[in-house]
Every structure is written in structure tokens, then in C-alpha cells.
Amino acid sequence: MTCKRLKGMSTVAFFLLAAAGTSSADEQCSNATLKGLYGFSLRGQLIGIFDDAGNTHRFANEPVLIDAVSIQDFDGHGGFTRADFVQSGGEKRPGSTDPTTGFDTNESGMYTVYSDCTGIMHINKFPAPISSTTIDIRFVLTDGGRRIFGVVSRQVIGGQFRATDGTTCGPAQPCKMEAQESLIGEKFRTEGRDR
Length: 195
Known about the structure:
The chain is mostly beta strands.
């Protein structure tokens, strides 16, 4: 093979590799990317409460540990329904519990996926006694929208809490929580196909 021909093939190979890299880098996401049934796990802690001025008031003892699992059905248009099971400080969080599964049901919210595959979820419908609870989650979609990695960015809980310095919140007005929580979600697959 001549040197000239080898150089020409190398140039073609370079441009093909560059084009392949560009197409994956240019992959765009939208609300339609997040569609179907996903399972989530969440882990973290509630550290304290914020007052109306935004000052932090830490809890007297160690932070309250949170562990949760949930299932969410995304409609591809910016809405979802969900059911979850949440342990907070070693106790199940109150909610509208399904007698068979033990999961809290009748929850829903909205989401937005941006073109760079980042997004926000706003869970804004919980049944009594926590109906005033709202949770915002910032997330990143990977693997063509099959996986979600997220962090709770804002959490307001319909409950009653007391900080070390005596500051309290709830029950009349929901508590703005200082929280550190992360979650991972994955799309359900049945018979080798996404659902």
C-alpha cells in the first residue's frame, strides 16, 4: 500500500470518528425522553429547618436519616404519577397507604427535561396528612433516558419539627427543610424492552 493511500484512509477514518463523536455529543433530550415506568431509590438526611429569613436551625441530635423507594410513571409530556415507601428516622412516613403493598399512593407531579439532558422534577401532590409537602429534584438523564441521577434541591414538609435552639415549624405552616438527599432511577424493562 502506498504512503499516499494510507494517509488518505487515515484522514477518512479520522473524519468518521469525529462525526461519530459529534452525533453522540449532539444528542438532545426533551420531556419525551422521560417516558414510562421507573424505579427509584433515595438516601439522605434531614439536617435542620430554615426560618422565614433563610437562616438554618440544626436538629438537636444527629440528622434524621431518610431512605425511600418509589415507582414513577412519566407520561412523556411533563407529568407523572408515583407511589413510594419512605422511612424517616426509623419510622414509616405517614400517607395514603395501600393495604396490600404498604406503599403510599395518589402522589403526582410535573417535570421538565432540558435539551442538555438535565432537568427538574416537582412533586406537588401528596395525600393527607402530608398534603402540604412539596419536593424539587434536580436530575441528569443518562443512557438514552433509561437512568436518572438526582439531588433534592428543595423540600417543604407538612409536619412538625424542633431544632436545637428551640426553633419550631409546623403544623400550621409546612417546614422548609435543610436536607441532603440523592436518588437513582432506572427504567423498567420487560422481556428485553423498555416499558
